[in-house]
Every structure is written in C-alpha cells, then in structure tokens.
Amino acid sequence: MLELAETTQNPGDGPSIVELTNSILPILAQRAGSIDESDTFVGANYALLKDTGLVRAGVPTELGGLGAEVPELCEMLKSIARVCGSTALAFSMHTHQVAIPAWRWRNQKVTAVEPLLRRVASEQIILLSSGGSDWIGGSGTATKVDGGYRITARKRFTSGAAAGNVLMTGAVLEDESGARSVLHFGVPMASPEVSIEDTWRTLGMRGTGSNDVMIENLFVPDGSVAFSRTAGQWHPVFQIIGTIAFPLIYAVYLGVAESARDIAVEMVRGKSASDHVIGLVGRMETSLRAAQIAHRWMLEVVGRNEPSAETINEVMIGRSLVARHSIEVTELAMEVAGGAAFYRSNGLERCFRDIQGARYHPMQPGPQSHYAGSFALGLSIENIF
Q1: Segment 311-344, tens digit of pLDDT
Q2: N or C: which end of the chain has fewer CB within 10 A?
Q3: Range of 288's domain?
Q4: Is residue 3 domain-resident?
C-alpha cells in the first residue's frame, strides 16, 4: 500500500497528482525513521512538496494550481502518511488552509480569496494553521488602535511553523461591555513581531515542528481583517472550515493506520500463525474497514457542498469514528506482530505513537458526543465545540 492508487488525472499534459505524490514516497520513507528519532522537523520534505508542485495541488487550475478537490487531496495526504506521518500531518495544515478558500472560490464565488490562492500557486507560499490553539473560542488579544489592531498571542500546535510564510489565525477583541469577538487575519511569519518558540518534544508526530508561535504587539490594519465573529459561538465560516478541514486531517491518521496494518501483516505472513493471531488479524481488518468507511462518509458529507450545523455533526461523528478505529488498528497491529513490534526498526511502534495524535484535534469525544446528542434532540448546539 506504498503507492497512491490511480484515480483522477490533472487537466493538461502534466503528470497527475497521483504520479507526483508517488514520485516522492521513496524519499519520504527513507527519511522518516531518522526524523522521528532525532525530533527533526520535516523541513527538507517541504522542498520536495514544492518541487513536485503539490504545495499548489488544491489551488483551482484557473488560478494556477493543480485543481485537486478534497477527495483527491485526502488520497494524497493518506499516501504520504503511510510512509511519514509527520510530513503528512504538517502538510495537511497547509492543504486545508488552501482547500477552504478554494472551496469558497468555486462554490460561493468569493473573489476576495483569489490573491492568496494565486500566491500559493505562483510563489508556493506555505500557509499555517493555528486551529489547534484557537478553534471556536479563539485565543490571543487584539487591542483597537488608530487604523487597526495590536495583536499579542501565543499560538500553540502550529504544525510546520518553521516552513510557513503566512499564519492564518485570529485574536480576541473585548469591547467596553465585555462582549468578546474574534478577528481573523493572516500573519506574515517574517514579521519582526513574530517568533517561534521551540516547544515540540512529543510522544508521536515528532517531525511536524508544531511549535508555539509568539506574536508580540503586531499591528494588523483594519483592511487586513478578513472577518469577525462572536467568540465561543459557531459561525458560518467555521462551519465551512470544520466540514472541509477534518476529512483532510483525518486522512493522515487513516494512512498511519493502514501502514500499521500492512507492517503487521507482512511480519506474520508466511509464518505458522496460531488461531489467536489469525483472529487478531481479522479484528484488525474489521477495525480498519470501519475507519475507512467512516472517512468515506466524511467525504460524502463534503460532497454535498452545503456546510452547516448538520454537516459539522456528521463530519465530527466521522472524525470520532476514524480516530477510534484507527487507534484500535494500531493497537491490534502491535499484538499481531508480538514482541518484534517493540523494535523501532520495524516502524510499527512509530505508527503506534503517531496515531495517538488522533485523540487531540477538535472536536474531542466529549464535546462531539454532546454536540451529536443535542443535535438529535433539537437542542442548541451553537456553543458546543
């Protein structure tokens, strides 16, 4: 399962997304072990992603990109994750920050996103996401000044920070009455008011470089604020973000689970397997299929092109199922392989550590269950996140 299956072709005479992705997998696979062992950021792999043009994969062809939509981008990320989870997860943050404005350009005719998408296509800039530290509640502070705002914030879990050009983020503005709103804007990573604090020493996904980004008194002009929303409450733009981003992010964890399954099966194939091991393999296959079906459901929801409170509910149910069953796959893979799974050289224990990250993205099981239950009962969900 090392290669991405041929599905769709890019328009024109150039290589397909499939061919471009497959061309870099051997190099990513070769580097993955040493990156993990040394806590090295996957920065060198970004050069490959740029050289192949995959950085602009999600930009519409009319704006200079490769025109891939969410299902094909998921296959790209899943394929990369099978050989290097850290590269896939870090790149998924750029990928969803491109896919969201691309979706708005295609489906809502929002022309304001064109300059950003054209920059991704022509300059191959890397977009960063602060979603892990922001989400619906927001973080950081915005203070109103003449002509704009002064921003101070710590943005945790900023995957790929060292490779990024623009951080897509926000900050909380509190008015005289105590009402809190979140302003959204892009932050140039080269600004002198922006720095990276090296905090990423973790159990898994060690190469993502998901360090803290520090913003100290950065001036953001009024005209650079993309939109404002009430803090701690769902907004239509976040319904778009949630619907599109999470199938892409969880494609990564599905790819890690598929890799764990393949490694475990290869380790016991051709050997005399006990009924116990055969049963474990069967349970592993069943859990993997459950994760794959759940992810396919997420993509079906995206395909409706109607982000809403309902699609958030369905996508987040899918997110919980993909996480639960992908974690179970790697646990069963460790049992299938037996004591040999404990050795780093087999790559299975890295899958086991990397998959743990699936637990921590929004919406985690508690809020997700609360949201799903409230939605089913016709109760308010606007403050559940």
Answers
A1: 999 999 999 999 999 999 999 999 999 999 999 9
A2: N
A3: 236-376
A4: no
